[in-house]
Amino acid sequence: MGDEDQLHHAFSNCPQPPTLKATPTESQSKAALLCNGKFHKHLQEIFVPLVVRYVDLMESAIAQSIHRGFEQETWQPVKNIANSLPNVALPKVPSLPLNLPQIPSFSTPPWMASLYESTNGSTTSEDLFWKLDALQMFVYDLHWPEQEFAHHLEQRLKLMASDMIEACVKRTRTAFELKLQKANKTTDLRIPASVCTMFNVLVDAKKQSTKLCALDGGQEQQYHSKIDDLIDTTVKEIIALLVSKFVSVLEGVLSKLSRYDEGTFFSSILSFTVKAAAKYVDVPKPGMDLADTYIMFVRQNQDILREKVNEEMYIEKLFDQWYSNSMKVICVWLADRLDLQLHIYQLKTLIKIVKKTYRDFRLQGVLEGTLNSKTYDTLHRRLTVEEATASVSEGGGLQGITMKDSDEEEEG
């Protein structure tokens, strides 16, 4: 019989009385010496310090694996490394007077297979969640007979899980911010898969915390509530960081449009050059490339996030904030030019950006109340007035671009 079988036999399976005819008094006497009797209590006294030592060492080992893991983390989605992850076993426990049972290497269990299908967490996070779950299941399977110590063990493991998941969430948040800082602020920006993996680590952490950190009853829910609040706060922060990065790209586009402000030297030169060239050649639409590249930037990043982030609620919040903040930035840019008539190229670019942004986010599920906000109404009225003014002064210079809704308008 192995060590693990011996532990389970000692703690949960009391020996049955021998198949001999015995008086009720003899049977009661033997039962008193076995299940929760002197012998059983003697075993508990021997194994209590060993189990405590085992849990201490496992806590230290898991904490070290988190530290080393995040230092080397590539944030590759776990689906791409699923074949290697199940071979990671819990570390060996050294220097104990008895050979305590080790959690063995194993083939992929059913619950982990379903995990791969539903998540794309990182190597370190998935390894962490498995180790915490395996350790809790091992201690649970001891079926410790003494209730007070059994409760202490459970509480200890729940607190450990809460601390470990908290460390995982904080390291993910730091890595997310560093990754975004390195990303460019042009329309070439495409969200890397690693950023989506970080999102999914938080999704996994929220799901796993329900199982690994929650205890039944009263104040003991504090472990789960604490980590739950931390995850919610962290998700809000990384959504805000990502929206800020997206908005900075739009600000770069508006900065380029600012060169066409009425009265600037560049605007005067451009208008003169275009009018002179138009006498001899078919001049292409200036400004449309700027609008088209921005629209492509929005659509492709929407598709990346929709495909790779596994929590619909987070995507909805992200898209709501992205749309709202984009409209606010454009509205502020226009408010700074209340006394100026927009250049024809500014107007065409803004009309196309605003209309396509509205339609794209509506297709992504942003609600009408968010789409048709006061900010959007203000923006729509200003561009409509500018369009009417330009159609008179430019003699049809908008070349078919209009704020009016039209089923015949070319999609692009």
The CATH architecture name of the largest domain reads Orthogonal Bundle
Report on the biggest sheet.
none
Helix content: 55-70%
Radius of gyration: 32 Å
Distance between the termini: 71 Å
Q: Encode the helix/strand succession as letters.
A: HHHHHHHHHHHHHH
Which range does the strand content fall in? under 5%
CATH class of the largest domain: Mainly Alpha
Task: Categorize the overall geometry.
Answer: elongated
Set out the fold topology.
Blueprint: H1 3-12, H2 24-33, H3 38-71, H4 110-118, H5 123-140, H6 147-182, H7 193-212, H8 222-257, H9 265-277, H10 288-308, H11 312-335, H12 344-363, H13 368-371, H14 374-393
Helix pairs in contact: 3-5, 3-6, 5-6, 5-7, 6-7, 6-8, 7-8, 8-10, 8-11, 10-12, 11-12, 11-14, 12-14
Overview of the structural elements:
The chain has 412 residues and is mostly helical. It has 2 domains: 52-92 and 106-238, Tetracycline Repressor, domain 2; 261-393, no CATH class. 67% of the residues lie in helices and 0% in strands. The chain is built from 14 helices and no strands. It is elongated and about 100 Å long. Residues 14-20, 80-88, 103-118, 281-285 and 406-410 have low confidence and may be disordered.
